[in-house]
Amino acid sequence: MARHYILDGYNVMMRLPELVRKSGPVRLEPGREGLLQFLMQYRPQGSPRNRVTVVFDGFAQIQANWARLRQEGIRLLFSEGESADDFIVKKISSLKDAPETWVVTDDRELTLRLYRTVEVMPAASFISGILTKKEETSEEKKSISPKAEREITDELKKIWLKKT
């Protein structure tokens, strides 16, 4: 069965080191756009049937490719006049498919408010599989297995020893 992930936008964004610089002030607009790009590129939500709703505090202040977001199963919402936490709690209470809905946040207060309503997933759990895969892929590119190393050495010995 397909899942619906509701992301506490700024909370998840702050957990992605690529999006948030450790030095200097945090710039929200590039961070929001970066989070959306991350969701489209790495698909931490898994199956294409899984939907994602990203909720940010405040009013819509983003130039997004709305058609591409819809195509990728991503919905972008702004809380407009209330906190994102309040907005998410209201959204959950209005859903009919709450058992298949997961809220992604590290916000302790929001987690307590959603207790026994829906599953709450820490942001790190949501993104960790993707970051781990990305790190493994980059490590694979940097090194080869000992077996492959021996095979290459043996082949080179055959070539070089014939010529000398």
Spell out the blueprint of helices and strands:
Layout (H helix, E strand, L loop, with lengths): L3 E5 H5 L14 H15 L8 E6 L9 H6 L2 E5 L5 H11 L6 E4 L3 H6 L5 E3 L1 H20 L3 H18 L1
Parallel strand pairs: 1-2, 1-4, 2-3, 4-5
Word description of this protein:
The structure is a single chain. The protein has helices spanning 9-13, 28-42, 66-71, 84-94, 108-113, 123-142, 146-163, and strands spanning 4-8, 51-56, 74-78, 101-104, 119-121. It has a five-stranded parallel beta sheet with strand order 3-2-1-4-5, sandwiched between helices. The protein is elongated and about 80 Å long. The protein has 164 residues and is α/β, with parallel strands linked by helices. Helix content is 49%, strand content 14%. Helix 5 (108-113) links the parallel strand 4 and strand 5 (119-121).
